[in-house]
Structure formats: C-alpha cells, structure tokens
Amino acid sequence: MRTYELMFVVDPRVSDEEVVTMTHDYRQMIVAGGSEVTKEENWGRRKLAYPIEKLTEGKYVVFFVASEGGKTSLPAVEHRMRQNDKILRYLTVRTDLDLKRAGSRVAPLEAPVQPGAAPVATPAAPAAPSSPVAPTAPAAPAAAETPQPERAERGAAREE
Amino acid sequence: MARPKKVFYRRRKVCKFCADKIDYVDFKDVKLLQQFIPERSKILPRRISGTCARHQRLLQQAIKRARHLALIPFTTD
Q: What is the pLDDT of residues A49-94, one digit of tens each?
C-alpha cells in the first residue's frame, strides 16, 4: 500500500466555505481515482514565510491519501491544482517508504562492534569516519588496530 | 604508544534526531525544522548542529519541502 501526503496553499481571499468546497472536490477526485483519503487537516489561515504573488498569508490544507495497487488520480489532481489560480502552492509526497524505513530501523553499528574478533574490527574502521560526532567510536577501532601491526613487526624482527 | 595524548576536551554533540528517536523528519513540523535554520535561514551545517549524516539528509529534504510551501523562508533580508 502506498501513502501520500498532499498539501496545498490557497489564496487567503478565497472564503472559508469556498475552501471547503474546493477540498471536497479534490477529495472526490482522489476517491474516484481509487484511493482513500485517510485524514484531512485544515490548518486555516497562516502567515507565509515569504510573499507569493504579493500575498503574505495563505490557507493550508493537507490530505493524507492511501492507495492500494499502483494507480491513483494524484497526477490529475496536481494538474487541476496547477491550473487553479487560487492555489498558490501544492506538494505531493509519497510517505510509505520513508515511514517503513523509519519503522524497521535497527542500530547498525552496535551489533558488529561487540564481537572483538579482528575481521569484524576492520569493517568497523571505514564506518567510523562517517560519524565524526562520536569521539569514542573512532577511538575504539584505532586502539584495536594498533597492537596488531606492532605484533607483526615484532614477529618479523625475531625472524631476522 | 608514542601517540601524543590530546588534553583538550570538546563537548560531545549528539544528533538530536537520534537522541529523540525521530526516524522520519516531517516537513510539516515547522517547530522542529526551525531549530535547524539560524538567522539567515540557511540550513544549519551538521558540523555545528551535530546531526548525523543520515538525519541531516532527511532534515535537508524536509526543509526544502517546507520552503516550497512557504512554511519556512528561503532567506531573510
């Protein structure tokens, strides 16, 4: 199942009732395309962070859409929004993948570090520079590495 | 063995998103995003904020989305 979030900003000069009918229309378009509107949020009038078409305010509406199977009417809805002058901005974001990834997240570093075997320590070392924030993490593999080459050198010296 | 010991200690920065266990950065969460846009409305670099690479990436995406919808400014002049 795919989920989307569709947010749009309406001209503040449009009356609240008209915004409701507009959202109702879009909702029906989405439903007609075989998707489901799971939630709808009306943020109402909000100050814009920067002027759009010389307007400083906008009315925000968010749709949360869920669709089974591949097809949705969202491209058609976007097309309609693009042609509607009262809509200042719109944005559709697909959210299911990101939410799933967020849900299935496991701590990636801690598991391989704990077994102290040498072959495991080497893959941990290239991973360490990516997290320069944690000083303890790079320090540990560095300390683990240094004794090994020293031992190798001593071994070589004895052979000579 | 012969490594010089570093004496100075820096306060350790922790990724806010890791600490708060936020795994999806929502572009609608203006309050959260605003913590990462300083005065000039630029995206705060992770060198300063301490955000981890993964979350910085998500944050960057969310900020850009929020900008498009005029929830967050591009610049302040």
A: 999 999 999 999 999 999 887 788 899 999 999 999 999 999 999 9
Same domain flag for A7 and A69: yes
Strand partners, A93: A5
Torsions phi, psi for B29 (to 5 deg)? -85, 80
Q: What is the largest CA-CA distance in chain B?
A: 56
CB contact under 8 A, A89 and B67: no
Q: What is the pLDDT of residue A100?
A: 80
The Cα of B35 is separated from the nearest Cα of chain A by a number of Å equal to 15
Residues A75-107 as b/e (b if ≥16 CB within 10 A, e otherwise) read eebeebbeebebbbbbbbbebeebeeeeeeeee
User: Which residue in chain A has the smallest CA separation from B46?
Assistant: A133
Residue B75 lies in a domain: no
- Write out the residue range of the structural domain in which residue A152 sits: 110-159
Same domain, A21 and A92: yes
Which residue intervals of chain A are DSSP H helices? 16-32, 74-83, 96-103, 110-113, 118-127, 136-145, 147-159
DSSP β-bridge partners for residue A35:
A67
User: What residue ranges of chain A have pLDDT lower than 70?
Assistant: 104-160
Interface test with A, best of B69, B75, B77 (most A CBs within 10 A): B69
The structure tokens listed for A107 are 């701590």
